[in-house]
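INFO worker-7 received task bundle
INFO bundle size: 2
INFO processing item 0
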Amino acid sequence: MKSLLYPHPLSLPSFSSSISTAKPRHLTPPFLKLDSSAVKTPALTVRAALDSATVNGFSFDTRNPTLSSSYRTSSLPKPNPTVLEAQTRVCTGPTQTKPLGEDQAFKVLDTILRSATGELKDEEPVSRAQLGAFFAAMTIRANCFPEATQWSEGESRAMNKYWPLLVRALPPDVVFIADPEGSLMGIGSSIGPQFVGNGTSEMRLVGALREVLAGGHLGFEEVQGCLRDVVPLKSTTEEGTATGVSESLLSALLIGQRMNRETDRELKAYCLAFDDELGETPIADVKSLTHYGEPYDGNTRFFRSTLFVAAVRSCYAESSVLHGAEWMPPKGGVTEEQMLKFMGADTSLTPSQAKVLLEDEGVGFAYISHREARPSLYSLVKLREHIKKRPPLATSEKVQQFVKARGKEAIVTGFYHEGYEDSLLMLMKRRGVHSGLVVKGEEGALSMTTRSRSVNSSKGIPVNYCSGFRSLSMASACEIDGVSRQSFNLEVNAVDYGFEPTDTPRTDRSVLKNIELGLTALHGQKGPAYDRIVLNAGMVDHLLGCDGAEDISVALDRAREAIDSGKALERLWNYVKVSKQVRHRPAMSEEGLV
């Protein structure tokens, strides 16, 4: 194997064990210059370089920047763990919900009561967002869930005991969510039926909630109106209000619509509501652009390969935009933003600055943070942690176009729960892209694996299931008819394409381990990570109908050549360098905007 030499090596920072409480700063990227002996053991070289760079390059107070959990903002208030555990069980769908046992139900309601009366001393207080999510779930379960997932006998007994006390201790908005018609709890109460909210924004939200809490659905304009009224969410007061809107009401809406299983029109409303937040969308002068929509909450168990796949595909003019967040609940796993930040890249690029990177012949891909592209929706991170389960935004945010292209466009994303693959493809067609692909990846991510399917695998859609469409002309998906669009679905078996079956490497929340696996693969070391990157680059090219990828064998060989030649590694380090330079360039003109 030939040596992989980065053409512009920089010296690594010296090792330091001091810990500072200063604001975190980017680390100097370890541009690696490897001699022939180093190439024989790239994993050791990569780890040594990253370990050396890490301590001096980060000032993460007492946190460990190699773990995804350390990227959670310390200023965010933590949710109450007792109620959060209950939310895990009840804030989900009509078949997945697990009713609480009597002991847990009594403990949860006692915790809520003591928090409301100021007597809870041994745990975090129960937030208004938690109250909204929990009681919305209880109301929807009672009103419209099948018998198996309605209230258990233990839940009913606990509610009968505590509700007469809670109705006097809880604020009116929470009482409304728990008993909107005043009849659910068995004691007459006029609070729910008479509640209208404070101000026009809350009045619209309350009206929508009455429908959602009864198991109903909202129209496109109604969802968009509610969202635009209440976000961005500002800092919360002690009374649990933000921008004049109760967090309990908003959390009830978000979790309620998810539990009712969003309709296509509701998902479209979430997907498109803030498209114009930053003005016109930049247009990159590239012939092909793929938007990768990984789950924003990251991976907690397995290698996340998409960043390295993007570097590979850029070598043969298949440009990619990755988008996500540094840290996002509920999983708080490893994300592309964490990896790029760890390697020293600037992760605060605007869409216009990302356009520059896409057009740079030495880079050809870009990452855009949710924080920069959709600041209004990013303001909901704390709320999303406190509602515990994924809201509709967790689906819609994966299908975004923060930059557009003069050439063909495609969107790739992943899914976990059956049924959402069709909704995601619907959103892609609504976006007007030429091709779209959804993948049932491990952890609900979009990467295919090379492992063999277990004979004991659970029922339902298997891992590596792919579904999508590709246009047979340059017309966008909004312009073409069904005859001009080719749909497909298949289960990808990596063995059929010459790969040895291997388990996906585990990272277990380690940012450093994920980077090490990716860089080692881009140095040309064969193994599970290398195969996973090649499979996902070549197979995506083939399924999307990219130029030169009509033959899957040719597509896979093209990806291997990009790695083995050292081009993909060079592209990745170019990105780290250029991402910092582009922030200091003069502001862009209006040329290249929609």
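INFO item 0 finished
INFO processing item 1
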Amino acid sequence: MAAAAAAGRPWRVIPRPVLETVLHNHALRPRVPQPLLFHGPRGVGKSTLLLHRLLPRWSEQPHAAAFVDFLHPTPISASANAAPWSLLATDPAPSLPDLRRRLESALEGLARAAVLRGAVGSKDVLAALSRSHGLRTALSRLAGVPASRSSATSVPARSPTASVPARSSTTSVPALWARAVLASARGDDVTFRIGEGEALNCSMEERAYMQEAMAALRVAKEVLGMQEGWRKEAVREMNRTGRFSRSLANSATDWPCLLLDVLSGAAEEDFFQPKLVLNNVDVLRKAVCEDETMVPAAMYHDSFIWRVIALGANEQCLPVIISTSDGYYSSEAFVDFGFPNIFISRETFGWTPQEAKLHMVSEFFSEQEWKVVDEVLGPNPRQLSEIYMLKQKANSPEVLHDKNIEEIIDTYLAHLQVSVVNPAMEEALRILQKFASDVRDGKVPENKLSFGAPWRHPPRDDNPNLSSKWAKIQLMDFVQSFVNTEFGVNYLADDSLEILDDPAAVAMIEVGLLYQQREPSFMRPITRGIQRCLARWLVQQRLQLNFQESILYRWQRLIRGRSYRHLMKEVGYKLFQRRYSYVNK
């Protein structure tokens, strides 16, 4: 009776009071010294928590929030009947220009909110812009001042008492700024104009002040865009040679960082408290960019994050919450950015089995159904919601399974195997083939190919067939060694850190099948369902081996095979000492 009643109930977002309180208390402050990194495996409810529990509270005055999801252009409803999630995007990979526009549009919306509340004026924009940029040349062009007249002011005049003050007063930065803002205010760009339905209760003077601030923002954007355009050929040369220039990297992030600077300066308790939420920020790091005059996506990502950190450390910044499911941010980002506690780290793993049972039993599943679901899939909230969705659709004529929970789970695991795990493993194989190609081209350093490493000897010939066989055997060898460790290793338990150099481990982390936790430092499949599918994949691959491939696989396991049993979860774990000794090396 209870199971029948539960089958008719819609899925709901279940509150998580402790985690919500931690994030909300961080966002309550107008300015903070560090960004907050909100990370954890896929499917544990990070995006749902932010979108449906916290953002509504952060959007009420005096608060204002900008939510940027780099994976989904429009937020996905928690109750949407979407198909089970995939680790790999089916659409073409997002481009860096699109993601830049998404980030800049969100910050421009926050800036508009600040202007409408009277928190930002033209002088604030000029002060923030002048701190790190030379403005005279760009403002002269925007203000329509002839180049000859501008350059003449740099030549000493014969009569210092009369002519120089007159010319310098008309070509000083404040004067050029005022002229450029006035010219911009007459434009018809709706992005930087006060709409007819906005600021209705304001006086003419207040409305003029707001319009001037919007025009100033437009001028600042044009100035920074002009200066970035001047550096395009230098960026092309940097991309061609593979070098790095901090000034060129920063030129790409000048506009969003200027808006962050202005908004942070305008933040005031109980008046205007902006926040920025960056969801799936790992997509920005891995975006594609075909424009040779634009910095690479990874460089853009690093420059923006680093400048957010610097703004918080030097002057304090508005609360920036970075949400991601990529293990890189759990285990390596804090090392790459130079300090173990460079971010405020909040890692979540979803519900414990006891918490999941408390929320699921009697409302969504019966006691007997929950025992099966918990044993096979575990307490991952996303997969629980999808199993419940399949359970609700069991009476539909197009569905091939009945209401039996075992049938539903078997159908779900089959779909997970075909649509999620198998495509991800194919992508991992391509990553391993690229590794073999990089070894042949000398792009892999020698310390990554230490003596005795199972991946030390890829095929020497540029033969796609041999490379594919080698990659397949390497991946099977790694999965078998992972099965022998019961699908969990402590990657910091051994000072050699060998598993972090393993290209098979790196490939499976990149495609999203494995997750590197920060505390405790375990590497494991993201869900128990994915773990079962990995074991099925290994069995399928072994059954498909021909005689020659079977001999090669057995030789790999006996002679060069991986063994990570000494890194099992229960062996040699120390919470802090290993991590900090690793960071300080």
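INFO item 1 finished
INFO post-check item 1: Residues 78-84, 147-167, 571-585 have pLDDT under 50 and may be disordered.
INFO post-check item 1: The beta strands are 36-39, 63-69, 273-279, 320-324, 344-347, 489-490, 514-516, 522-525.
INFO worker-7 idle
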